[in-house]
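So, can you check this record?

>
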Amino acid sequence: MSPVARIRIDALRDNVRRAPLADAVLDLRWDAWGHGAASVSTALRPLGLRAVRADPATVADLAELGIRVVDAREREDDLVDARRLYGLTGTTTPVMRMSGTVLGTKTLRRGEGVSYGYRYRAPEDTRIALVSGGYGQGVVRALGGVAEVSIAGRACPILGRVAMDVCVVDIGDAAVTRGETVWFFGDETEGHPSLREWSRVTGMDVAELTAAVGAHARRIIE
């Protein structure tokens, strides 16, 4: 039931094919922006990946794959646009998607509050869902009250403060049940919220957001 950072290798490869890697340097710092340096380099090695920028902790593993780690001042002009590579610009396909799970639902009566300090109180009767995924997994606190998740294609606002491992969302009259998938962000063409919206409302860079999610949520390779 824990939230998952889903890394789509097919999307990564499609994004790379738009910009051949033979003479390029790939940005694998911050664990490939949270996407997993080992997974990204393994997937792209057959497509011509030869040189990267990387964190010191990953240098030895990359060397075993025959991938050279370049100095930060070396080949600056050849550095691949990581935002395009990881699909964070809106012009390429998002590689990371984050999903949680509905843990339960209940009716919230007018005037009743939710989450820490009851800072949110319902202006009218509604239904809410408790969702796995909180600031401990990269769903930053600043998203409470301003961002939405998607459940079965329906946008559901996050209510109140984001807790450590869960958050509360307004599901209204939607027929949501325990165990359903909740999308925090992903591919807009599939009806998922955009990570760029997270960046807009929090003031954080998309690199900060994906790195935090990749480091703290359960990461799986698809």
User: Anything to note?
Assistant: The radius of gyration is 19 Å.
